[in-house]
Amino acid sequence: MKREPFSGWKKPGASTPLGTTITSYARLLFHPDTPWAVKGILGLAIIYLLSPFDLIPDWIGGLGLIDDLAMVSLLVGWAIRLATRRVQEQSKEQK
């Protein structure tokens, strides 16, 4: 029996594994119908996460890591809200 990687990891309060969540964000980023604004925001989140320049340096007692997580979380949340708003508008137009 083959076990999926990250199958035991779950977001707090959610029932989906972390790997599934990351995969869904990647699909959203590369989907052709995703608005450019959402792709740009997700791209900024990735660049900020990988960038050596931060608002608070990483070596300051863990505050730098919390800063990275907070910025990326805010950017991804903003992108998801924009994407769901777009999907809601498209579903209203189809009715």
Q: Overview of this structure, please?
A:
There is one protein chain. The protein is 63% helix and 0% strand. The relative contact order is 0.11. The chain has a domain at 34-94. It has 95 residues and is mostly helical. It is elongated, with a radius of gyration of 16 Å. The mean pLDDT is 75. It is built from three helices and no strands.
Layout of helices and strands, plus pairs?
Elements: H1 18-30, H2 36-50, H3 63-94
Helix pairs in contact: 1-2, 2-3
Summary of the model, kept short:
With 95 residues, the chain is an all-alpha fold. 63% of the residues lie in helices and 0% in strands.
Which sheet architecture does the biggest sheet show? none
Category from helices, strands and their pairing: mainly alpha
Helix count? 3
State mean pLDDT (0 to 100 scale).
Answer: 75
Our estimate of the beta-strand percent is under 5%
Global morphology: elongated
The CA-CA distance between the termini, in Å, is 44 Å
**If you compute it from the alpha carbons, what radius of gyration comes out, rounded to the nearest whole angstrom?**
16 Å
Order of helices and strands: HHH
| Helical percentage | 55-70%
Strand segment tally:
0
Uncertain runs are: none
Observed structural traits:
3 helices; mainly alpha; 63% helix; 95 residues
